[in-house]
Design a protein that fits this description.
With 239 residues, the chain is an alpha/beta fold. 36% of the residues lie in helices and 26% in strands. The structure holds adenosine-5'-triphosphate (ATP) and magnesium ion (MG).
Length: 239
């Protein structure tokens, strides 16, 4: 068995005096879609920030491609091929779609293969007709697509998606899931954070359920879909 692409081992992490994550472990194999699903305030975003190095864990380790990246700042983890698409979908609203992509395209400064802008526009067809439109004129779903496209143009082989479907209309959620699937087929590994377990069950190879800063369940989508107790207790849904 080969080593996982990303391995988080027993991290504690938080903000100053506030401890949020306790002894949290997860791993992501190359080529997989792995979900981290949990309620509001469970610690999902803090987990992604700890992987990126926006927040530094106080215990445990984060290993990427066999390298200990626990204490590296985000500027360094990005260079190694990890990219975070945050909840706020950071795009530049005053710039056009093309300009947003051009800024992300910093000329192969990372260890990951980056998509060319032309390749990105192949995948994100709804951006193709809008390259001259301002970022601010895009719908929520299109802004999400642009934020993901920016991560790929910048060169990422592991993309961390923080609640990509939040606030999107159901038919846009479908489009977004299609895009994630397509990218995954092209070799991009995905760690998907969601509150919407249905999205996880459709996309993920494996799922981690997080509650109050701890992983309380790990399983395949088939197993999680059958686990009424976990779904009800931690996610408040019946599938
Ligand atoms: N900058 C911060 N300073 C102090 N506490 C924070 C900070 N950011 C988050 N927290 C706290 O950490 C806990 C976990 O927050 P986090 O944002 O990781 O949760 P989440 O699972 O992403 O939630 P959501 O689904 O609402 O995005 C919460 O109790 C939150 O109040
Ligand atoms: Mg969050």
């Amino acid at each position: 068995m080969s080593d996982p692409l990303l391995s988080v081992d027993g991290i504690d992490s938080g903000y100053g005096e506030t401890k949020v994550l306790r002894d949290l472990s997860l791993s992501v194999d190359r080529g997989d879609v792995v979900s981290l699903v949990g309620r509001n305030g469970a610690g999902k975003t803090t987990t992604l920030r700890s992987i990126m190095g926006i927040v530094t864990p106080t215990a445990g380790s984060v290993t990427y491609r066999g390298e200990d990246v626990t204490t590296l700042p985000a500027t360094e983890t990005v260079k190694r091929g990890i990219s975070l698409v945050p909840e706020e979908r950071r795009i530049f609203p005053e710039l056009t779609v093309m300009e947003n992509l051009e800024i992300a395209d910093h000329g192969g400064g990372t260890e990951a293969d980056s998509l060319s802008i032309a390749e990105a526009l192949e995948t994100f067809e709804n951006l193709r007709e809008r390259t001259d439109n301002a970022g601010s004129s895009l719908s929520g779903g299109e802004q999400q697509m642009l934020a993901i496209a920016r991560a790929l143009v910048g060169g990422a082989d592991l993309v961390l998606l923080d609640e990509p479907t939040e606030g999107l209309a159901p038919y846009i959620v479908q489009d977004l899931m299609d895009v994630v699937r397509e990218l995954n087929e092209q070799g991009i590994t995905v760690l998907l954070v969601e509150q919407n377990v249905h999205v996880c069950l459709e996309l993920a190879d494996r799922n981690y359920v997080i509650d109050q800063g701890e992983i309380v369940y790990e399983g395949t989508s088939d197993d999680l879909a059958d686990n009424d107790e976990v779904l009800d207790r931690y996610l408040g849904v019946s599938v």
